[in-house]
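seq as requested:
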Amino acid sequence: MRQELIRPGASELSYEIREIVKKADQLKALGETIYWENIGDPIQKHAKIPDWIKSIVSDLGQNDKSYGYSHSMGIKSVRQFLAERNNELGGAQIDEDDIIFFNGLGDGISTLYQFINPTSRIIGPSPAYSTHSSGEAAHANAEPITYVLRPSRGWLPDIDDLYNQVMYNQSIVGILIINPDNPTGMVYPEETLIEIIDIARQFDLFVISDEIYGAITYNGAKHYALSEIIEDVPGVALKGMSKDVPWPGSRCGWMEFYNRGSDRIFNNLYNTLASAKMMEVCSTTLPQMAIPKIYGDPRFPDYRLKENKKIGKRSEVITNLLADLPQLYFNPTQGAFYNTIVFKPGVLTNTQTLEIENSDCEKLLEEWLSEPNIKPDKRFVYYLLAAKGVCVVPISSFCSDLMGFRVTLLEEDEQLLLETFTRIKEAVIEYCG
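struct tokens:
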């Protein structure tokens, strides 16, 4: 071609959560059983949607309007419902015009970063969720800027680290939180959120809160929505129905903007995103129509509570198996359905191995290990996959200097859950000695 087609920041786009699937599929083609712990899809892990939710969706399918275009910003009555739902929390008040729908929250996240000035940066947590860190880095043609979540403090953020980075880096215009957090399963306490809001207020920043897992808490944790604590600071909450219904295939997410009228520059961001949506015609119609019917149904709170208790019990199973291993930093989770498990410094080396019974699997592993500059936790993840059939994601791929791996808490089959994490326990012991 006469010119380069790809902008420099495109090299920052990576999604190891699905990249690891390519290798697992190679083993599956050899007849190996794979224990999938790489991605947060409840349906893949045998979740059963209640009949009453299926009936709502089925009935909507009989409505001719569900097959047509909706308003580009989202169906007005649905946005009104969501605004009223937010306002019941008693914090920042919004109306339907403060809400924009997207074709899944991933679409919303990429659109958000796409239209922010490349010289303006959003600082986010590390370990980072790849969709955020890759999207933000790609828009800036640079590596992500992150603040540290400390495994030694239950994955709470290092507020001093965040403060200092904001103070000394004038390019930072916003702070990202993921609450509950992916990949760690940490839920931000109210006092920590207030500290972050105070930093944003002091340095004239806005706050992004990814709350896709906001309804999924357990083990005594409480989720505080951004609107409850943001006061007068500009902010945007990212929400969707893919995790709590769960309906990941709905591709239906939205943004709620708070205090946009208080800051001209922040309001310009809202107007730009709204204009971008106008060019796309509309967001998915039928899932939008289902939102008031599902979330407004009196059965939904009890359903969600029961599901959260089930996730909490799985958290206990995993804790009982892995918490006492001396090679690991282990924190029980409080929200979402992930756990990030970290090896203590010095535990991993480049000489450790696991026994591979299948010679064809061993040949594949040798190919994987030939990657240049492979990190120690990725090396462990490849051995775990080849030797035990368990597919997890290395934490170094979550924009982190820590060495470890992320698992899910989604497996509905109790015996399969126990077998999967017993295999992980055996691998840690055998690999690390």
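The chain is about 40% helix and 15% strand.
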